[in-house]
């Protein structure tokens, strides 16, 4: 590189010790994703920052999560929300400075929270010193530069398409082309180059020495391309991602990189983790990323994309548990993130969103929450076109700018210039009435979505059968419902989800001794008929609801 920054003068977590070791804490952790730009703004410029995150950490500790995952806050021109990194070792001034990251890690650890940060190894920004050198004619083998096709080289080297739409190649003034699987401002790195591998090992050590507890690996299925960069022969290639293997995604060579990273993480004491954002065509292919000598977790995109239908949910749950068990890894579950429509909208309303949350939190493994889902926030669908910042939207292709709607800054208070997001406005406009969904407005209301999440996470952490507890045992229920039992030493839980739009009567979960623990139904009517003569033999599962029963 053109420069080399160094971490603060200390060794690993000596200055900011992590929360007390809980062996393999990540196997059943609840991890909260913070989209830094939209979480909390400390200086009034309308953009969230690291100091804002630090000031709001008590909310996350009170919510009951185990760790916080921060989206990129590195130096970046922000062509793709910070996923175009120009300096992997420095904080972009819009988010603060390196001292703010240092203080955030300290404060999180003092509250018992671990910190996971993004690492973006598939590409850099076109403003990165390496790419600027490449444009000047040196160090081009760090990227994928190729001559064009046709008699004058005016055609792209192959038919690969960008995930954001259009060709995955851009021509430079000397006539050659460079590869970018995302925006043109995000040139893909060449991981066959040893300098690239050494650089990212150094970047990981830099942040581990600062005290972070792990990494979310962006595009962990990318990095390695098929030899010869062969044509695909199909258009609309973005639709094939996750459906079939492609010459630029899910190539076997990525696993050598992940094994190297696992050895590096283990050298820091065994409790630092890496989480793969990996798209692959089958659960079995995804499981390859979490073999014992590779990464610790992989996001469960089939679950995220699953509709609110009992049969589909059971199929995805079974396939996920089977695949991860085959390699001894925990399953992960996620309903929303910064790239998809919020599940309160995607699944068809808040009732379903609340039910889906309880179902997810009852499953064995690790769960990911996206900021604001604990408030029941819907997707913001009426943003003016001129305010959208998603590069896919402005290219008129790809995801049609849907990602902006889930990135609107979250509300903290019922009023104020940005509903408590910060002392000024917000970089994307917040809807009228956003304050009624705020943290302050929902706190203390037993029927609120926030209090449902707080209670669910407390029960999940305290009950031996939940979290890493017992395996899933499916129970017979009417069509459209799901029911499973989990039993561990010290107790058991039955989870019942009704994905239909009608109330369904069924035998009391767990028999006469079954005791309702929690329900997503705000009315709380999980066991009508219970009274002075004892529990009813049957209960009614409300439409679009989920309930937990102690047995």
UniProtKB/TrEMBL annotation:
<feature type="region of interest" description="Disordered">
    <location>
        <begin position="505"/>
        <end position="539"/>
    </location>
</feature>
<dbReference type="Pfam" id="PF00128">
    <property type="entry name" value="Alpha-amylase"/>
</dbReference>
<dbReference type="InterPro" id="IPR045857">
    <property type="entry name" value="O16G_dom_2"/>
</dbReference>
<keyword id="KW-0378">Hydrolase</keyword>
<feature type="compositionally biased region" description="Basic and acidic residues">
    <location>
        <begin position="12"/>
        <end position="22"/>
    </location>
</feature>
<dbReference type="InterPro" id="IPR017853">
    <property type="entry name" value="GH"/>
</dbReference>
<protein>
    <submittedName>
        <fullName>Glycoside hydrolase family 13 protein</fullName>
    </submittedName>
</protein>
<feature type="domain" description="Glycosyl hydrolase family 13 catalytic">
    <location>
        <begin position="33"/>
        <end position="407"/>
    </location>
</feature>
<dbReference type="GO" id="GO:0016787">
    <property type="term" value="F:hydrolase activity"/>
</dbReference>
<dbReference type="InterPro" id="IPR006047">
    <property type="entry name" value="GH13_cat_dom"/>
</dbReference>
<comment type="similarity">
    <text>Belongs to the glycosyl hydrolase 13 family.</text>
</comment>
<feature type="region of interest" description="Disordered">
    <location>
        <begin position="1"/>
        <end position="22"/>
    </location>
</feature>
